[in-house]
Amino acid sequence: MGSRWTWRLVALPGVVWLSVFFLCAFYAVLAVAFGNQDTLSQPVPHWNPLDWNVGYVLDMLDNFFSGGPFWTVSLRTVEFVAIAVALSLLIGYPVAYFTARHAGGWKGPILLALILPLWINYLMRMLAWINLLAPDGIGSDLLHQVGIEDLFLSIGLLDEPGGWLNGQPITVILALLYGYLPFFILPLFVAIDRIDRRQIDAARDLGASSMSAFLRVTLPLSVPGILAGAVLIALPMFGDYYTADLVSASTQTNMIGNQIDEFMRQGSEKVTGAALTLLLSAFLLGLMFYYLRSTRRAGTTAQTT
Amino acid sequence: MGLSGSHIVDLIAHKLLRPLNHSYLPNLEKNVWPELADPFYDRGARYTVPYVVWMDGIGWRNDEVKEDIAAMDVPWDIFWHAQAYRGKVGILDDRRDALSMPMQRDAMRKGTRPDLNTEDEDIVNKAQSDLSELGSICNPKVAITDYQTLPEGKTVLHYSWSGDLLSAAFYYLPKGVKPDVLSFWGPDQNGIVQNDFFAIGRTSQRPVLTHQFINFMLDEKNAYDNFVNFTGYTPPQKGIDSETLLKQGLIPKTLQEAVVRPDQFASNQELLQLSVTGQRFWDDAWSKFKAG
Amino acid sequence: MSRLRNPWGRPRLLALITAGYILWSVVPVLLAIAFAFNNGRSRTTWQGFSFRWFTGETGSVLHDTALRDALGHTLLLAVICVAVATPLGVALALGLQRWRGRLSGTVNTLMLLPLVTPEIVMGVALLLLFLRLFGGIGLGTDAQAIGQITFTLSYVVVIVRGRLVSIGPEFEEAAADLGAPRRDQFFRVLLPLLAPAIVAAAAVAFATSIDDFVVTQYLSSDASTTTVSMLLYSSARGAPTPALNAIATVNLVITLMTLVFAYLVYRRFAGRDEATSVATLEV
C-alpha cells in the first residue's frame, strides 16, 4: 500500500514538532539544572553535557536525602496524593460500578453528568467549591449539618468550626479529590462497562451469590481499570500547585508543585527549580511508562475482540 | 515603570535605565520630600524619581483582636502569641519583607539596631526558624491579599504593607463594615520603609512624553488623586500627611500610623539589593519556610 | 436471564452514592453560574436577577477591558491551536497508523508522553525552552500557542487514530480494486470517512486550549497575554465580583457548544458508541 516512506513523510511534521518543542524542552530542563546562575540570578544553561555542573543538583539531592525541606514537602505530597487517590477509589468505584451495571434507563443522563465536569474549567469548578466552603457558605453549613464538621473537629482534622479555608490539610485533600475524581471515574466506568457480562452470569449460574460474583469476577477484572485510573489522576496530582494555593495559602500544605512554582515563577533560583523538576520527573517516570504500557495492552485487547 | 530599591542597582549596572532630564521635572523639587529627592541609592536622582512610599507593619481588625498591639513592648511578638487566631493570620508573600520581621523582633527585644540587609547566614537562618515556628502556632497564610482579607474578616492579623491598609479602608470594605475596625502599627525606627519609583527604560520610544508623564504624576493634585482613588499608597508629597487626611475624614484615627512620615525614612531602613551569595541565603531560608 | 435483584440491597446504596457524587460535582458549578446573574456584588447572597456582569456599563465582561481582553486572548490562542494542531495531528495519526517499522513504537510513545506528563513539568520545560534556547521567540502569545499545540497534538492523534482503526483498510482496498489511483483513494475515500473524527479532534483541541492553565500561565509575558483561566486564578484569592462568575460562564458556554457540536457531528456520521468513547477520552 504505497511506499514505506510516504507515510513516514506524512508523519514527519508532527514528529519534528514534538522533537523540537517537547524533547528539546526537556533537554532545556536538564541543561538548566546542570547549569549555573548569573549575577542577575538568571539561569545559565550548560548545553554541552561535558560542561555540566552538578553543583545545584547535588545540593538539591543533599537537601532531599538529609531530611531537609524538599524531603518534608515531597513526603507531604505523597501523603496527600495517596489519601486523595484512596478516597477516589472509595467514592469513584461505587459510582462507576453503579453507572455501568445498574443504571438502566438512567445511564445516558448519568453518563452525561459524569462527563460534564471533565470539560468544565478546572479552576471554575474549584472556585465554585471554595465559594461554598467559606465560613458563611452553603457547603460549610451542609458539612456542619451532616455532622462531618464535628467529626473532623473531634479527630483534629479541622481546627475550628467553619474554618475549612484556614490552611487545613484536609481541605486540600478534599479539594484534590473534588478536582480529580471525574478523571478517575470515567475510565473506570469504561473498564467496568467492558467486562463481559457473560462471565458474571456464568458465575451466578454456577451458584455464586451476587456479592461473591462481584468479589471473584467483577472486581478482579476491573483491577487494571482501577490501576490505570489511579495512575491517571496521581500523575497530575503530584504536579499540582494551584489547588493548594487556592484552597489554603499556608506553608503547612505546600506540595512539591508549590516549591517548584516558587522557584520558577516567584523566586530567583530557576536552577534549583529545574533540579526539583528533574527529581519529580524521575519519580514519576515509572508511573508514566506503566500507564502507557497498560493502555497499549488494553488497546490491543480491544482490537482483537 | 515602578520598581523598588532591591533591584535598582542591577538595572543601572546593566544599563537598562535611561538617565533623567531634570529640566522636564520641575515638580520634583517643588513637591517631593527633600529626603527622597536625593536618595542614597541614586544620588542626585539621576535615574529615578520616587512614586509612593510605604512601611512594613502590622495590620489588624481591632474588633476581633483583643490585644492592644501598639502598646506592647515588642508588638511583633503578637504573631508568636496568636494561637487564638489560628488560620486567620497572614504573612506577606515576599521573602525580604517576611524574613525581616523576626529580625526586627529580635532586635527590638535586645534593644539593638538590626541590619535588614544582612548577608550573615546565621542571622537569616535564625529568622527562618523563628518564622517557621508560626506554622504550628497560628498556621499563617502567606499572601499579599491583606487589603481584601482583612476587611472581609478572612484574616484578622496580618504582617502588612501600610498602603494595603489604606486601600482596604478606601475601597475594599464590604457593606456594613466601617474603616475604623482596621488598625495599623509601624515601627518608628529599625523597621522597613520602602518606596517604589519611576524610571525610564533605556529603550523607551517617547522619552520626552515619559518625562512629562512623570512630572504630571508628581503634581500634588494628581498624586493625591492617584493615592485616594487608585492605589492607597501615599506619595511622598510635602502637602500630604496624616493630619490633613484625618481632618478631611479620609482616614480613621486607627489608621493614622499607616501614613508614612518623612522622619521615619531616616530612622527606618530600606531593603536593598544583596550580592548573589547573600541573596542565596535568603532564598534558601524562604524556600525552607515555604516547605512548611 | 433476568437477574432477580434484591431491590433493597446494594443498588440502593450505590444509587445514593452516585446521586450524592453527581450533586457534589455539579451543584457548585450551577450555583456559580447562577450568581453570574446576580444583581449585587455578592457571590454568595442573592440580590436579584440582572445581566449587569455580562453587558453592564462598568465591570462587566463586555465593557471591562481586562475581562474582555482575557476572553479575546483565550479565543485567539484556541483558534491558533486548532488551526495548527489539527492538520499536524491528523498527519501524524495517519503516518503513525501506517508506519511499519521499528521506530513507530518510539514515535508512538513520544506522541503519548505529553498526555501523561504533569502540567507543571511541561510548564517548566517550555518556560526554560523559550527563555534560554528560543529567546528570539521569548515568552508571550507565540510561546503560549506553541505550548498548547504541543500537548493538544496528542489528543488529536489519539482521536483520529481511534477512528482510523475502526474504519480499517477495507474501503481503500476496495477503491484500489476498482482501479482508483492512490490520490483518489486518499482524498475521496479515506478523508471523508475520517472527517467526523477530524471535526471532533478539532473541537477537543479547542476545548482543551480554552481551559488550559499551567502551560499558558508559565509562558505568559505580561497583562496582554492573560487568559480567562489565569484571570480566574489571580482574582480568586481576593474578593472578586460576580463578573468573574460571568466570564467563567461565558467560557463554559463556548466550550460546551463546541463539544456538543462535535458530538453531534460524530454521532451523525460515525455512530453513537464511538462518539461516547471519544467523549470519555479513552486514550
Mind explaining what this structure looks like?
- The complex is a heterotrimer of chains A (305), B (292) and C (283).
- Chain A is mainly alpha-helical and 305 residues long.
- Chain A folds into two domains: 84 residues, no CATH class; 198 residues, MetI-like fold (Orthogonal Bundle).
- Chain A contains 13 helices and two strands; from the N terminus they run αββαααααααααααα.
- Chain B is built from twelve helices and eight strands.
- Chain B is globular.
- Chain B is an alpha+beta fold.
- Chain B has a domain of 135 residues: Periplasmic binding protein-like II (D-Maltodextrin-Binding Protein, domain 2, 3-Layer(aba) Sandwich), CATH 3.40.190.
- Chain C has one domain: MetI-like fold, CATH 1.10.3720.10.
- Chains in contact: A-B, A-C, B-C.
- Chains A and C meet through helix 1, helix 3, helix 4, helix 5 and helix 8 of A and helix 1, helix 3, helix 4, helix 5 and helix 6 of C.
Could you outline the blueprint of secondary structure elements for this entry?
The complex is a heterotrimer of chains A (305), B (292) and C (283).
Chain A: H1 4-33, E1 36-37, E2 43-44, H2 55-65, H3 69-101, H4 107-119, H5 122-133, H6 138-145, H7 148-154, H8 169-194, H9 197-205, H10 210-238, H11 242-247, H12 256-266, H13 270-304
Antiparallel strand pairs in A: 1-2
Chain B: E1 2-4, H1 5-13, E2 17-18, H2 26-31, H3 34-37, E3 48-61, E4 89-91, H4 95-110, H5 121-138, E5 141-142, H6 146-152, E6 157-161, H7 162-171, E7 182-185, E8 193-201, H8 207-218, H9 220-231, H10 242-247, H11 262-267, H12 276-290
Parallel strand pairs in B: 4-5, 4-6
Antiparallel strand pairs in B: 1-8, 2-8, 3-6, 3-7, 3-8
Helix pairs in contact in B: 4-5, 5-12, 6-7
Chain C: H1 10-35, H2 52-55, H3 65-98, H4 103-116, H5 119-133, H6 141-167, H7 170-177, H8 182-211, H9 214-218, H10 228-236, H11 242-270, H12 272-279
Helix pairs in contact in C: 1-11, 3-6, 3-8, 4-6, 6-8, 7-8, 8-11, 10-11, 11-12
